[in-house]
Amino acid sequence: MLALLFLSACGGSPPPPDTTPHPGPQTAAPAPEPEPGPEPLELDAGEIQVRFLHLAGALADKSFEAFVGADASIPTFPRLPFEAAAPYSTVKNVAEGIPIRVRGEGVAEVTGSIQGGPGSYHTVVILSDPSDAAKIQLVPLGDNAPRPSGDAARARFFHALAGTGPVDVCTAGPNRGDPQTALFFGVAYGASSGDHMDLPGTPPVRLQVRAASQEACTGRSLGVIVVAPPEGTTIDRQNITLFGVSRGSGRRATRDVYVSIDQPPLSGFFNLPFPAR
Questions:
Q1: Which partner for 205 in 42, 227, 238, 239 could form a disulfide, CB atoms 3.0-4.6 Å apart?
Q2: What letter would DSSP give residue 208?
């Protein structure tokens, strides 16, 4: 018996073929497509969404009240402190060209209008009047840009740095003296840079603000912005506005950057330091 077992192992009949299936070469799973950003809230016909933002730095100690609509007798926004934007509010039965007015204690009432049809979103910025710090002006912004299709945030810059001329906002290199590229060019006080643009990279993103010059990003440095949301807040796949803001006037004025996430449902705000460099 032992001999038979030995012969079978050494040179007897061949073993049966292996019929166990074996997988072919393994390939990496394709990367998932980026999830689209959250969609804006659905509005009924004849509705718009409006919010107000008090950035009148020379009047930072005052609050304002805002009225939306031609027949508004009760404030739509009864109290608007400095850098404390009210959330979007739905305004019904509107048409293009919606009257707005803002007033505060000891501050002359200012009127304006929102240009936007039903279903649109708007932020109205309250600014110090550059010709008279005791007065205000209103700047409506449309918040209707489509959501980013990729992972990166898209941004625009709004110039609310009273007493400062036009500015360039530049991507800052890792080292002092590295070449810079203009993300936004020649933004004047009280104006937006225009369309939202892709932020270069993921947070933290380092940007430099410079006095505008004929050749972009070669003017005097005014400060550095590091776009990094606080813990628990994300700007991924969002449109944001970077508001460069001054508080107070003259040499005592301080500066920061007020960041808004534009459009519901994730509309929100946070502050960033704006140190000089």
A1: 227
A2: E
